[in-house]
Design brief:
Elements: H1 2-14, H2 29-48, H3 68-78, H4 81-93, H5 99-102, H6 104-109, H7 114-123, H8 132-158, E1 160-167, H9 178-184, E2 189-190, E3 195-196, E4 204-208, E5 213-220, H10 226-240, E6 245-252, E7 256-258, H11 266-272, H12 281-289, E8 298-304, H13 312-325, E9 328-335, E10 341-342, H14 345-353, E11 357-359, H15 363-373
Parallel strand pairs: 5-6, 5-8, 8-9, 9-11
Antiparallel strand pairs: 1-4, 2-3, 6-7, 9-10
Helix pairs in contact: 2-3, 4-7, 7-8, 7-10, 8-10, 8-11, 8-15, 10-11, 12-13
Amino acid sequence: MHTTETARRWRLILGRYADGALPQSQFGGADVELDQVLGYLYDREYTERGHRLQRGGGGRLDPTQLTAIKWLERTRQLFPRSTFQRIQNQAVTQYGLTEVLADATTAAALEPSPELGAALMRSRGSLDAKLEAGLRIVIQNVVDEIVRRIATTFTATLVGRRDRRRRSVQPLAQNFDWRATIRANLAHYDVERQRLLIDEARFNSRVKRRLPWDVILCVDQSASMASSVIYSAVCASILAGLPGINLHLILFDTSVVDATHLASDPVSVLMTVQLGGGTDIAGALGYCERLVRMPQRTVLALISDFEEGGSVTALLAAVTRLREAGVKLLGLAALDDDAQAVFDPHVGGRLADRGMSIAALTPDHFAAWLAEVMG
């Protein structure tokens, strides 16, 4: 049994080029289909090395006869969702299966995920201009998926501060009033188990802010920032639509692009972004300084890996000037595709010493941080 399973796994790894030693015919029908959909993509590894692609046996879906859309549909059926997403990401970005972007129907069939969006953002510079329409479809679907997940919580967190005198029927975690919940449920305390049984949870309402705040999102678009740029664009679009917030969206590498006029359209922002190049954080903050009108009611959020390619001295001087003027400074470390922080701790520490609050946060926690800072 062990030998058979090992042979099966090696056949799926090696594909049709193992036919001589591990013929496809000795495996079950399900494995034949797995072998064919994997071969459709991963045989490209062999052909790029000069191996000749020979037609396989009598399977129902010979890889040489598959179309991109049929391959996507069958791969989605055969693999768990997480595995399918990984395969489709590799198909587009590693193995050049760009025909999935050439056809609108096929592009729309791709499973939207932040990881796919980030992978496409990284490879966008090498894609043919003819694929831009398909790329836009995929990016739109990725944005829609993120908005669906975070918009309600993000907005509810920021539309107003908590009013502990008023109750809310909306069960949002950031509005949870633990003190009132304990008081309301003391009668349900289980003495024997020493546990409080919650029959009714209490939540605070929120009151709208009256005085406006200026929020400047200063987003690093260097090569490591793909995932963070996508989430930043979505957060900017939500902030741009909230009352009482005047948003500025600034993108930078070694130059600065003011994308404020596009902030409400995250897809246009992402189709504008050019990942790569160097990083001049000091220059970007210098530009942001000129946007400050009401220092005491301004939040500047720097989203970066803090890998300063310019003058660290100039960067620290800019942070000092902004802090002394009364601007509230937030530094959000870049997050990779697995939501792990990726940043230069040395520069991050020096920024913290100069008065910038540094954290690595997901969008919902970023919203809570903004709400806290703006009181």
